[in-house]
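Entry 14. Structure prediction run on the chain below.
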Amino acid sequence: MARGRQEEVVDKVIRKIQGLESGMKELEVESFVNKNGLADKVALGLGEDLKPTQLRKVFHSLKRIEREVKRDKENFRTSSVVSILPDLAYATGRGVIPKKFYELMRECIAKVEDASDFERFMKFLEAILAYHKFHFPKVS
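Output returned:
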């Protein structure tokens, strides 16, 4: 897939996220878990520019937050999720995370208003990770 086409695919997904009116929970699981769904398209769109190590690093940072959320859903704070944005911006500035991935994560995080939004965001990120591994099993 040509770079311009790749970015266009990711931009479409970003616009879909931006259009969610009631947060990430509005994103239907079926829209991203299936082959050719949103997560699959993002994984292909970002391609080998998104290194598995960086993707896992972001994922594990968010998994730590997820464990806290599962322990205490009533006291969910969006600030804990938003706090990952500077790390993503730094990694993007260093060139280890593609700008489109940063933009996608920023839009998803902006749609996290409560624990159920966060849970749906994590499922979406897990699906991206899975499809990225499927399409790019070994990146040297």
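The CA atoms of residues 24 and 117 lie 5 Å apart.
Filed with the rest of this week's runs.
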